[in-house]
Design a protein that fits this description.
The protein is mainly alpha-helical. The chain has a domain of 58 residues. Helix 5 packs antiparallel against helix 6. It is elongated.
């Protein structure tokens, strides 16, 4: 028991992790060899392991491989989203991915949920929300800066080109188009 009265979570130590030929075992598991074949290969290397130990390790191995596959799929979606919109706010996408993973973790935790300290979950959620708020503030400041720069440019053009009204009008139109384009690309 911990000081907080919760049971300690014991880390599983697999015998396979102690083998010198662990990389070979991992390859054989991923290639679909039988436990008996792997036991024989390990014995040929001068070490020993049981089929039961392999079975326990393999279950963990498969869960890790599944998580890696899922993460790769999520990253693929992220890369596709960024490719389609090069000005996508990567921090926002990363936060959404993190929030999705956190919600998934909470929703599938069942018995484990009671082991997750609520203050830790609260801190994670609060941190993500602070990050989202800071990002929105930065976007607002960016928009404000573009608008201010555009206005300053327009005033300067009016002063410089007051004797050339047609050219002034065209320059102001171009400035407006650039401002609109910058603000739309950001989205």
């Amino acid at each position: 028991m911990t000081k907080a009265g919760r049971p300690r979570k014991h880390r599983k130590h697999f015998k396979v992790e102690q083998l010198k030929c662990r990389a070979m075992v991992d390859r054989m598991l991923s290639d679909g060899y039988t436990y008996e074949d792997i036991v024989a290969a390990v014995q040929a290397k001068g070490e020993s392991i049981t089929a039961a130990s392999l079975s326990r390790y393999h279950g963990s191995f498969e869960r890790i491989a599944e998580r890696i596959t899922k993460t790769r799929e999520q990253m693929k979606v992220l890369v596709e989203a960024v490719r389609d919109k090069p000005n996508t706010d990567l921090a926002q996408v990363a936060n959404e991915l993190m929030m999705q993973s956190l919600i998934e973790r909470i929703s599938t935790a069942q018995d484990e949920f009671s082991e997750i300290p609520l203050d830790k979950v609260g801190r994670l959620v609060a941190s993500l929300e602070r990050s989202a708020t800071a990002r929105e503030k930065l976007k607002y400041e960016y928009d404000k800066g573009i608008t201010a720069a555009s206005e300053a440019f327009k005033q300067r053009m009016q002063e410089e080109l007051k004797n050339h009204p047609d050219l002034l009008l065209r320059m102001l139109e171009v400035a407006e188009e650039v401002q609109t384009q910058l603000l739309e690309e950001k989205k």
